[in-house]
């Protein structure tokens, strides 16, 4: 019976939904690719990039049973490294700037690395879309069976999840308003089309009953090979064709910096892969009844669903309206500059330390249970 259900999973529509969620959080919330659904570059390059990277690392997570929240964060670290060979941001600095904000450290733009590799992409481009997708699927299941069991602590409306999601919403609302969207209702108008598209795709997915589980959203060998082939083709095209002028200037003035940066990021990627390998699989990956956990907060009525997701989007819209009205005040602009230049790098460091501790605790708990 289970096999019949899984064969009917609308994987293409789920892939479009996941990709749209990744674009919403990773691009629109950053103030980039705002009207991506009507832009040729966004539809041909950016949307497939986010969609296929999300599918690739989510499928790797499921195939290796590394699906805890800390595991997903570490997969997101690998996701974020596309910013080196494709956009070159990790060497040349953010687009539209004169170079790396804090300069190069071992050939890598250190501020940009701390923001987009340690914070933005792992959380906004990878974890938030997956968590949101699970909330949508959980709306039909009502009992937590549609999600990764180890993700339930953050998919249950409790003090920890409230603090996490509200913090993410407040921080990203600052950035979205600040990044070239500063007048009146314009930020909300930018947010609306992406959410509307997500709702349309969501409605097209038959989620009634308990047939669709995140565990079933896994491509077979043929589908996974297609994902890999697309990513290889994308990298082959992007590496020589997307070259910011700031990178040209850096290579001209610091000839060895590019090679040094490549080695540094390769070592970082290797360390992330080693950590994922030695951390061991998710102890709850094969749980049949995930709600039977020693945690009262996993009661069905407290599980986060589409209703909570819409509430968070509504909070985002209200904050965008508020910040856009206040941005004319110099003090607010200065505050956002401080948040962007100092707080976000610090958050990146905080998250990688916290998630590393989380992996260690999970592994230690499994060893205790075995003994």
Summarize the structure.
The chain has helices spanning 2-7, 11-28, 40-64, 69-80, 89-92, 110-141, 159-178, 186-203, 221-241, 245-253, 257-279, 306-326, 330-370, and strands at 104-105, 108-109. The protein contains 13 helices and two strands; from the N terminus they run αααααββαααααααα.
Please tag this protein with its features:
371 residues, mainly alpha, two-stranded antiparallel ribbon, 13 helices, 2 strands, 67% helix, 1% strand, disordered N terminus
Instruction: Give the class from helix and strand content and strand pairing.
Output: mainly alpha
Question: How many β-strands, per DSSP?
Answer: 2
pLDDT below 50 for ≥5 consecutive residues: which ranges?
Answer: 1-7
Helix content percent band: 55-70%
Tell me the domain tally. 1
User: What is the subunit organization of this protein?
Assistant: single chain
Mean pLDDT: 84
Number of helices: 13
Q: Give me the Rg, rounded.
A: 20 Å
Order of helices and strands: HHHHHEEHHHHHHHH
Q: Can you list the strand order of the major beta sheet?
A: 1-2
Distance between the termini: 36 Å
Gross morphology is globular
Biggest beta sheet summary: 2 strands, antiparallel
